[in-house]
Amino acid sequence: MSTPAIVIAGCCAITAAIKAVGPVALGGRELPTWFTSVVILLSPALLAALVATQAFAQGDHLALDADTAGVAAGGLVIWRTGSIIACVVLAAAVTAAVRAL
Amino acid sequence: MAGFILAVSFGILAVEAGFSPLAAIVFSAIVFAGSAQFASISIVGAGGGAGAAVAAATLMNSRFVPMSAAVGPSFSGGPLKRAAKGQTVVDASWAMSSRGDGTFDEQLLIGASAIAYATWVSGTVVGAIWGDKLGDPSSFGLDAIFPAFFFGLLLNELRSRRARGVAALGAATALVLVPITPPGVPVLVASLASLVGLSRRARAEVLERQEAEGEPR
Q1: From the centroid of its chain, how far is CA B154?
Q2: Do A78 and B169 touch (CB under 8 A)?
Q3: Threshold 0.90, pTM exceeds
Q4: Which residue in A19, A57, B97, B179 is deepest, having the highest Cβ count within 10 Å?
C-alpha cells in the first residue's frame, strides 16, 4: 500500500476506536486522574512542536524564512483579536509577500 | 467560514504532500478530524513515514477519549448506537452542546457536527480538485495556514502556567531533534512533555477541578 493509503486507513481505524471507547466501554465511569492530567497537556505539547517545526525547520535543518514571518504575524493577530480567520489569512499573505521580495 | 478556508487549504496541501485528490477527499470523509489530518499530512509532507504520521494523528485525537467519555451518559440507545453517535464528537460541537452541568444536548451535538462535516468535506473537495488551478501553493503562502491555525489552537491551551511550560518544553525538544532524527520523530518525542501531567501537583489540580464541576449549581 502507498503511504497515503496507510495513513488514511490507520487514522480511520484509530479515530473510530478512540471516539467509540468513551461512550461504550466507560459508560459514565470516571477516567483515572493521571490519564486525564496527561491528555490535557498533550495538546499544548503537540501543537507547540508542530508550530515550531513548521515555522523554524526546513527539512533537517533550522532556518528563518518566509513562513516564520507569516506564522509570527498570524500568532500576533490571533493573540490581539482572537479571530482565527484573520490569523490564517494574514499568515498566508505575509508569507507570500516575504517570499515574493 | 474559517472551517471552509481550513478545509480548502487541507485539500490543497494534502495533494501537495503526495495524496491524490480522491485520497484527500476520502481522508476528510472517513476520518473527519481536522487537526489530526493536518498533523499527519505535515509529517508526510516533511518526508516522515506512514507510522509516524498515524502516531501523531493518534496523539492529537487522544483528547477525544475524555471528551467522548464525558458525553457518553448523555447518549441514548444501546452500545452500538452509542458508539456510532460517539463518532460525531468534534471540538466545536462538543463545546456547543455542553449544558455546563456535565450533561450534553444530544440533538444539538449531532446537528452541529453534521454542519461541520458538510463544511469540512466540501472544502476538501474544492481544495483537492481545483487547488492546482491556483498554481504553486507556496507562492500564496498556503503552507503558513496550518501552522498559524495550530498557533491559534495553542494560544487557547496556554491558560495555566503548567501548560505554557509544557508547550515551551515541547517546542524546544522538537527543534533540538530536527537536525538529528528522521522527519516525524521530533513531534512524537515532544509529546512526551505532557508526562509532566503525572506529577502529584498536576493530578491534584485535575481532581480539584473535577470535584468543583461535580457539585450541584
Answers
A1: 11
A2: no
A3: no
A4: A19
